[in-house]
Every structure is written in C-alpha cells, then in structure tokens.
Design brief:
The structure holds two protein chains of two kinds. Chain A is mainly beta. Chain A has one helix and five strands, in the order ββαβββ. In chain A, a hairpin with a 2-residue loop joins strand 3 and strand 4. In chain B, about 50% of the residues lie in helices and about 10% in strands. The chains are: A mainly beta, B alpha/beta.
Chain lengths: ~70, ~300
Amino acid sequence: MSFTLKYKSINEKREIPNENYTIKDLLDELELSAQTMVSKQNGELVIEDTVINDNDEIQLVQIIYGG
Amino acid sequence: MQCSKCGNPKVIYKREQSGQLLCKDCFIESIEKKVIKTVKKENLLDKGDKVLVALSGGKDSVTTLEILNTFRERNIIDICAVTVDEGIANYRQEGVDIAVRHAERLGIEHNVVSLKEEYGISLDEIMQRDNHKGSCTYCGVFRRTIINKAAREMHATKIATGHNLDDEVQAIMMNYLEGNMNNLGKLGAKTESQAEEFTVKIKPLREIPEREIGLYVVAKDLEVHFDSCPYAMQSFRGEVSEVINQLTQKHPTIKYSTLRGYDKMKPVMEKEFKKDYAHGRCERCGEPASNQLCKACSFLEELGV
C-alpha cells in the first residue's frame, strides 16, 4: 500500500504505514504545520483529517510563509 | 461529514472558531460575502471611486484584486494597480510577472515601479552596504512612498492593501506591547490622512484569517506567488505572530476578539492621542514631512544616493 507525495520539489512514492493514516499524520511526520498548508487528494482539496488510500496522489501546498 | 451549508460531502475546510464545515463553493462564497460585508460595514468604497490595488502578486493582494473586481464588474468602482519591484534577485520577478498577468486578465491599468528606477538603488544593493538599517525598514518606507505617488499619478481615490486578520492583530499587539499609542490609533479598516497628498487607505481583507486567504486562492485556482522573502528574518512581528497563533489553538476566536476590542477602543485613542499634522514638505522631493526631509529621502541621503 503506497501513495505519491508531491510537495515543492518532492515527487515520491511513500508507504502507508498503518490503517487510517491521515494527511495530518503525514504532516506531523514531515514536521509541517497544518496551519501553513493546504492539501489535495487526487487533485481535490481536502481537510487534514482525510485518510490516505492506496495509490492516492497527495499534494501539499504551503500557503503561509514567514516574513 | 458534510458541508454545514449545503450538505455536500466534499468538505475542504473546518472553521475552528465556529466548527463550521464548508465545501469548496460554500467556502469561496463565504470569503467573498465576508469581504463585501466589511466593505459595506466600514464604508470602504464610494460609488465612482478609482481604487488603486497595491498588487505584489502574493495571495493577499491577488485576493483583494479579485474580490474588489466584483464591484468593478457592477460598475460601482474603477480599479487600477501598482506593483513595486524592490529589486530582490531570485524572488521578486515571479511576483511581478504574476501581477502583470492578473492585470492583463482583468484589463486594468497597471504600473510596475522599481526601486532602482525610482531611487537609483535596489534593495539588494542597499543590503550590500555596511551601514544599512535592515531590509524591512527601507522596503516599508520606499514601498509606501511609491504607492502613495502612484495613487496621485493614476488619480486614484482609494488605495487598497491586502492586510488580513493576522496582519492587523499582529499590528495591534505589537504597537500595544511597544507602548506606541500614536501608531496604535492609526490602524483600522480605513485610514485617512490630514495631508491631501495621501490617498485614503482601505483594508478589505481585514477580517479574513491569513490561512483562509491561502485556501481561497488555491480553491479558486488563482495564480499567486507563494514564497518567502529572502530577507525575512526573525522579527518582533514574527515573535508576536507565534504567540498569537499558539493562543489561537486553545482559544480559536482570539484574533476576532482582539480586533473587536481594538475597534471599540480606537475612537478613544484617536481623541486622546491626536497629534498635530505635520504641515511641512520634504525639501528634496516635496512629499509631506515633519522634518526637513521625508523618511524616504533621509534614507537616500544616508545611503549617498
């Protein structure tokens, strides 16, 4: 079970580590703040509580930058 | 889980302050309605206004342009825009190009003014000087001066900036914590100066949280420049912002309550801390100034430009 992560220059396949693995879990793993990001699942905007499924494409967009 | 307004199961946003869940269309509509409500409540626009949007190409200014354009489409106002090119290598050009494309898309009058052309020195060149005072000091003053001049040249009756709820609450807290009552009294949705050379400034996004503006541009597929200024550093604003955001996690309405409290206090502060308006003019450029030189020209003198 894997998904594709797209974030800035990252475009990679990642394993889904457990059942009910959410975008919030992914953000925590990448040490990214949900407050500064929006997430897309297969091209559609979703909230961070969304569960990542097999073969999903998850795109993260940073919308808040310091300064 | 479904949209609190229309029942659509495709929810894209949860409002922590109210628990409201919103689908894409209802989220976009809620932002646009809220901005229009601010415009009406604060009397930000008059019929026949020509509004100059300070358009950097970032999310806040592009959203300001997009929503104010709905008033233009209804023939209530006219819109023009100015973009300031500070001269920051590998950063600014993308925002300038995006601003140009938005202006072309909407068919509005648009000027790009560079610090280099206007003052003979770019921000990158200033930052190479040993005696510089920090990038934000120059950038803020030069940008303000250029935007004010552009408003006069383009015959604008209002200047709209993209200040959002987070910006405004940070400014309230920073000025309060620094005890700067003069600057504290000057915040708000609409700023009018006694100097006729200064055009009225309005902040239509003042009640929209920064995160919601970011989501709005992504939801509407608006092209914006998402990037961090290379000169951004650990500033007092950054520290204040961090504290406010930490508090917001446990107290999701705190930004709004800070803003509401400020709005109630503002008339008192204006009365108590009203300063006599500086009637002087800068000897070098003729802009309003309380000393011999305006702030921009005093910087230029120090830099030997």
